[in-house]
Amino acid sequence: MNTLSSLPPDSELAYQAMKACLESSADVYVQLNALREWVNVHYPDFELYLEDVWNERTEGETHFEYILRSRRTLNETEVLGYDVYKNHQDQKGVWHLDEYVSSLRILQDPRCLLDFIRDNTPC
C-alpha cells in the first residue's frame, strides 16, 4: 500500500477540492459520494467508507454513515453524514432494505478531514 498521500493534507488545493465536492450539487447524497470518491482516490492510506447501521437511530430505518478511517492507525472520525433508507422485517424476522429516503450532511467544513489525515499520517 502506498504510504504517501497524493496531496499533502495542509494543501490549499486539497481543501478547495474537498469544498468543491461538498458544493457540487444541491443533493446531499451527490455531495457526500463525490467527497468519498475524491478522498479515496487521493489518500490511499485512508478510506472514507460507509457503515450500515440498522434500526439504531430510528426503528424501521437503516442509516449508511460516512466515516473517514486511517488504514494505518485504524483511527476514525465521527460520522460525517448519512443516507437514510426505509427497511422492513419479514415474517421470519429478517430485516430487508427498502427505498432510499434522504441524506443528511453533518460535515460543514472539510478542514477537519485534512486535520485528521495530517494527524494520522506518519512523519
Keywords:
about 120 residues, about 30% helix, disordered N terminus
Protein topology:
Elements: H1 12-22, H2 28-42, E1 46-54, E2 61-70, E3 81-89, E4 95-105, H3 111-119
Antiparallel strand pairs: 1-2, 2-3, 3-4
Please give a structural write-up.
The chain has 123 residues and is of the alpha+beta class. It has one domain. Helices cover 28% and strands 32% of the residues. Strands 1-2-3-4 form a four-stranded antiparallel beta sheet, with helices on one face. The longest helix is centred in the first third of the chain and has 15 residues, at 28-42. It is elongated and about 55 Å long. 20% of the residues are buried.
Offer a concise description of the structure.
This protein is of the alpha+beta class and 123 residues long. The chain has helices at residues 12-22, 28-42, 111-119; strands spanning 46-54, 61-70, 81-89, 95-105. β1 (46-54) and β2 (61-70) form a beta hairpin.
Q: Extract low-pLDDT stretches.
A: 1-5
- Write down the domain tally: 1
- Number of separate helices: 3
Average pLDDT rating: 92
Shape: elongated
Largest sheet: 4 strands, antiparallel
**Helical residue percent band:** 25-40%
Q: Which structural class is indicated by helix and strand composition?
A: alpha+beta
Q: Give the strand line-up of the largest sheet.
A: 1-2-3-4
Rg is 16 Å
**Termini distance?**
16 Å
Compressed to H and E, one letter per element, the order equals HHEEEEH
Fraction in beta strands: 25-35%
Strand segment count:
4
